[in-house]
Design brief:
It is a single chain. The protein is of the alpha+beta class. The protein has a domain of 73 residues: Signal recognition particle alu RNA binding heterodimer, srp9/1, CATH 3.30.720. The protein contains two helices and six strands; from the N terminus they run βαββββαβ. It has a four-stranded mixed sheet, covered by helices on one side. Strands 1-2 form a two-stranded antiparallel sheet. The longest helix has 11 residues. It is globular, with a radius of gyration of 13 Å.
């Protein structure tokens, strides 16, 4: 959850935790962070927000969701080119993803 006009990203284990008002799993200050797209596979965009304090790995279930995250984060972060996307992925763009929990990928 990135509030309008705010740079503190709160993240949750899943959407139902967020919707039920449970406490966030954690927060990440996005101001000055770098965002890069790691992979696009099966339409899912996996991206990383790399801040001074830590790295947060996220997923966006579609190109449209990924684009929305990029627009929301762009005022606070630098966008870095990275990974080549699979065939049929959205126009080769780089960055953002799922606000609900870590990606659980070790890399």
């Amino acid at each position: 959850m990135l509030p309008p006009g705010g740079s503190l990203l709160s993240y949750y284990a899943n959407e139902s935790d967020y919707l039920s008002g449970k406490d966030a799993k954690g927060c990440l200050e996005t101001s000055g962070a770098t965002v890069f797209l790691k992979e696009v596979k099966g339409g899912v965009h996996r991206f990383t927000v790399q801040a001074a304090a830590r790295e947060l790995k996220l997923r966006a279930p579609s190109a449209a969701d990924y684009d929305a995250w990029c627009r929301a984060l762009r005022p606070y972060v630098s966008m870095r080119d990275s990974v080549a996307a699979d065939a049929g992925a959205s126009s080769g763009r780089q960055s953002a993803g799922n606000p609900f929990g870590d990606d659980d990928d070790d890399d």
